[in-house]
Amino acid sequence: MNIFKTIAEDVRAVKERDPAAQSSFVIWLTYPGLHARWSHVVEHWLWNHGLKSLARISSQFTRFMTGVEIHPGAQIGRRFFIDHAMGVIIGETTIIGDDCTLYQGVTLGGTGNETGKRHPTLGNNVIVGVGAAVLGNITVGDNSKIGGGAVAVKDVPPNCTVIGIPGRIVKRDGKRVTSEQSAAAKRMENLPDIVEEQHRSNCARIDYLEAQIAALRDEVCPQFKKALADVDPVNPEDLEEG
């Protein structure tokens, strides 16, 4: 597909996904995410044809103009849309399928100094929310969503929703996913959330202690009242005479 067909297809995709989109001309003129994507088409061609230095120089100019840094080596599918398009980083070995959407502040990056394939692979129709990070050579399956601010470091099956740090699956095929340890051990998809686990432990401990206090109060108070009733009242005049 040539660059002109890509532009036309991307503009139609924006109209479908962005309720704030206006005319095709305004979209073409004012959407920096599309400008970064179209520049990458040229930069990727230069990269693949051995003009890597020129591709890198062009990508840095695109970064300066749009706020989006896409490495020329990244492979991006059709109808790719970066909404609001500021602070987005896409690494060299990233692979992005068709109909994917990223929001501002997204990072598709690595986790260290690995060589070879070290960036994520996104399937088709994947959405990555505001400020989220997808790190390492992992795969995010088709139709999955990475929630805003999440950090995904493990593979995500298709049709799932991931939230939290580290990312954990909360929906699969439209149904909520429970967090049983057995499920996590079997599928390795519910990553441990130390803060949540400690919070649950503290709540359970508080409930236990409150129940113990209530039981102790019910046991002690009647006995205390009975003991007071058995004591003869003291006459103040007797105290004075003594």
Account of the 3D structure:
This protein has 242 residues and is α/β, with parallel strands linked by helices. 43% of the residues lie in helices and 17% in strands. It has seven helices and 16 strands. The protein has helices at 3-17, 24-30, 32-48, 52-66, 181-187, 194-230, 236-241; strands spanning 68-70, 75-76, 81-82, 88-90, 95-96, 101-102, 107-109, 121-122, 127-128, 133-135, 139-140, 145-146, 151-152, 160-163, 168-172, 175-176. A seven-stranded mixed beta sheet has the order 3-6-9-12-14-15-16. Strand 14 and strand 15 form a beta hairpin. Helix 3 (32-48) packs antiparallel against helix 4. The termini are far apart. The model has no long low-confidence stretch (mean pLDDT 82).
Calculate Rg over CA atoms. 30 Å
Parts with pLDDT < 50 across at least 5 consecutive residues: none
- Tell me what portion of residues adopts beta-strand conformation: 15-25%
The strand order across the widest sheet is 3-6-9-12-14-15-16
**Could you spell the SSE succession in H and E letters?**
HHHHEEEEEEEEEEEEEEEEHHH
Mean residue pLDDT: 82
Give the number of helices.
Answer: 7
- Helix percent reads 40-55%
Number of DSSP E strands: 16
Span between termini = 112 Å
Globally, the shape reads: elongated
Main sheet overview: 7 strands, mixed
The computed structural class is alpha/beta
